[in-house]
Amino acid sequence: MPSYRQPGTVVTDHVFTVPLDHADPGGRQIEVFAREVVASDRAAEPLPWLLFLQGGPGFGSPRPIGRDSWLDRALTEFRVLLLDQRGTGRSSPVTRKSLRHLATPAEQARYLSHFRADSIVADAELIRAALAGGQPWSVLGQSFGGFCTVTYLSCAPHGLREAFITGGLPGLDAAADEVYRLTYPIVADRTAAHYQRYPGDVERACRVARLLADSPVALPDGGLLTVESFQTLGRLLGASTGSHELHYLLEDPFDGPELSDAFLHAVSPRLSFAPAPLYALLHEPCYASPGPHRWAAHRVRGEVGGFDARQALAAGTPVPFTGEMIYPWMFDIDPALEPLREAAAVLAERADWPPLYDPAVLAANQVPTAAAVYFHDMYVPTALSLRTADAVSGLRAWVTSEYEHDGLRVSGGAVLGHLIGLARGTARDS
After folding, report:
1. Is the peptide bond before 136 cis (omega within 30 degrees of 0)?
2. Which pLDDT score is estimated for 290?
């Protein structure tokens, strides 16, 4: 367990061996990495643990530098464990390369089926036994990490001392179709607000889309920039600074009649799933319904209408952006996903995903729980979050328009501090 110092903290690396399939504990094993962070002046104290579950699915935990962001507040009373959820970060990877040993798409899909919230929670319980001596710990879940926290409350509430959720109260019975029927109109509203803030972006986005509609352009990583993938830059619009970041991408995208190298290099990392292929593979299976999901975002996009860039160009209307949606064509144009295209198709047709939440257990919940529900959240619909808040006994919901989905990160510890107060009864939810 190597330890090292950063400004104001002591950091210790941990690696745990866990079953790939927790129903078969003696079968294939994988590694899960976690990073322990404690305030340097309290490193010798027996502080309570706070497990952090990152958003995603498919992203590793934050790589901190000292007491940055919400860690500053957490480290005043906790020993924090930043978990690289299975398949992410320094845990046993899930990538096009690591899955080569599985001979068929069906085998790859079976392997990938063990990387949802239920398996992440089972990993956490083994890690809790190893690190916390079996004592309950606190958990903080951001976005998809909040989904995992609700699974934790359903499957292993005895392991939790208290639970804090930010931007991640899922619909307990919501199919992916319902999620997208709610989020597409929000994305449309965010796009309209962006164009109102930056009216010059209307023509620039149209010009880019017009070029790509005629001829897609190769990206520096070997991927392909199509008009549809250009539209997915709209996922930025759900973050606190996202509209401004999108504007700067569009500020000067051309070099003569062609897209500039600078523009292509800037958008390439925002479109590639190389850092998190699980995000694309398991995005729809992370929702509550047993499936089959059958590319729900793609189907619902056609159902709601208004998101066809070519139709917008023909009509002379602003190019619509899309949001946090996964489409089947992504597996045709992204080198990180293309070898996994057939496995993704198998996952899309699976009809027997096990349940992630237990409404009866949640209705009898006794774990002090607080959740920040961001009123304008573009990724996790407020209507579903509030429905879940009513279904979890004792959960205190703080509905706020002060922050966007990334409120935990940008609030300097204020969001976490308020959630701690709510769960402990020392703060009000309004």
Report:
1. no
2. 85
The pLDDT of residue 7: 95
Strand-strand pairing, 49-53 and 137-142 = parallel
DSSP sequence for 92-150: SB-STTTTTTS-SHHHHHHHHTT-SHHHHHHHHHHHHHHHSTT--EEEEEETHHHHHHH
| pTM (global) more than 0.85 | yes
* Tens of pLDDT, residues 233-246: 999 999 999 999 99
Question: Percentage of the chain with pLDDT > 90?
Answer: 97
18-38 burial, b for 16+ CB within 10 Å, e for fewer?
Answer: bbbbbeeeeeeebebbbbbbb
The SS3 assignment for 50 reads: strand
Average pLDDT over residues 294-310: 96
Q: Could you give the angle at the alpha carbon of 52 between the alpha carbons of 362 and 379, nearest 5°?
A: 70
Q: How many Å apart are CA 121 and CA 47, to the nearest integer? A: 22
Strands 79-84 and 29-39: what pairing?
antiparallel
Element (H, E) at 200: helix 200-214
Coil, strand, or helix at residue 227?
Answer: helix
Work out whether strand 160-166 and strand 254-255 pair parallel, antiparallel, or are unpaired: unpaired
Catalytic residues: 143, 352, 405
Helix count and strand count (H, E) for the chain:
18, 13
- Residue that has been written with the tokens 């504990």 in this structure: 25
Average pLDDT of the segment spanning 150-175 = 97
Three-state SS at 348:
helix
Q: State the CB neighbour count (10 A cutoff) for residue 196.
A: 10
Average predicted confidence (pLDDT) for the chain: 96
Domains, the chain, with CATH or none: 3-173+357-423 (3.40.50.1820), 176-349 (no CATH)
Cβ-Cβ contacts under 8 Å for 428 (sequence gap 6 or more): 422
pLDDT tens for 51-99 read 999 999 999 999 999 999 999 999 999 999 999 999 999 999 999 999 9
- Joined tokens for residue 333: 């144009």
Measuring CA to CA, how many Å separate 32 from each of 87, 111, 123, 190, 342? 8, 16, 8, 37, 27
Taking alpha carbons only, the member of 26, 24, 31, 14 closest to residue 98 is 31
